[in-house]
Every structure is written in C-alpha cells, then in structure tokens.
Amino acid sequence: MSNITCKDAKANVYDYLAQEVSDETRESITAHLRDCVDCAGEYSLELQISSFISASSLNSNSTDDLVNRAYAQIELEEEN
Ligand SMILES: [Zn+2]
After folding, report:
1. What are the CA-CA distances from residue 53 to residues 46, 57, 59 (Å)?
2. For residue 60, how many other CB atoms are within 10 A of its CB?
3. Ligand 1 midpoint to CA 58 (Å)
4. Crossing angle for the helix pair 61-79 and 37-55, to the nearest 10 degrees
5. CA separation (Å) from 39 to 51, 59, 61, 69?
6. Phi and psi at residue 31, in whole multiples of 5°?
7. Distance CA 8, CA 32 (A)
8. CA 11, chain centre distance (Å)
9. Interval 24-52: pLDDT, tens
10. How many CA within 13 A on the CB side of residue 34?
11. Higher-confidence residue: 41 or 69?
C-alpha cells in the first residue's frame, strides 16, 4: 500500500488523525498528503476541527500534543 488514491486518503483521514492506522497506512497517507494539495487541504481542515474539539476538552493533553505535532509538520512542509 505504498501508493494510495485520494479516495483512500480521504476515507482514512479520521483514523489517521486519531493514529488508528497501521504504520504502513500512516506512511502512505503522509506521503500522499505531501504530494496532493487537495487531500492536504482537506486534512488541514480536519486537523483544525480536531484541534478545536481538543482545545474544548481539558482532558486531552496527549491529543493536543499529537495535533500540534501534526500541524507543525504540515507547516514545515508548506514552507519547503
Ligand atoms: Zn489526494
């Protein structure tokens, strides 16, 4: 599963955000998001929604950290 389609990426975006995918799937989606502006935009939107939800909860420090790290990675890749 090294090359995935937009359909696969979008179908897995929620599980990806929740880190409920296998390492192989995660790497495939990460690679796809790096190459696909459309999916990267959708992922970014979902990430903002997730960030908002977790910011509303006082008991989600680990999720905050996860979201922040993921967001920082996207920002880095946008700068390149
Ligand atoms: Zn795509």
Report:
1. 11, 7, 11
2. 15
3. 33
4. 150
5. 18, 29, 27, 18
6. -65, -40
7. 10
8. 12
9. 999 999 999 999 999 999 989 888 888 77
10. 12
11. 41
What tokens does 9 get?
């990426």
DSSP string computed for 49-64: HHHHHHHT-TT-HHHH
Question: 42 CB contacts (<8 Å, ≥6 apart)?
Answer: 10, 13
Ligand 1 center to 46 CA (angstroms): 14
Q: How far is the CA of 59 from the centre of ligand 1 (A)?
A: 33
Per DSSP, helices labelled H in the chain are: 6-11, 13-17, 23-35, 37-55, 61-79
CA distance linking residue 34 with residue 51, whole number of Å: 20
The pTM assigned to this predicted structure is: 0.60
Q: Is 39 exposed, middle or buried (0-12, 13-18, 19+ CB in 10 A)?
A: buried
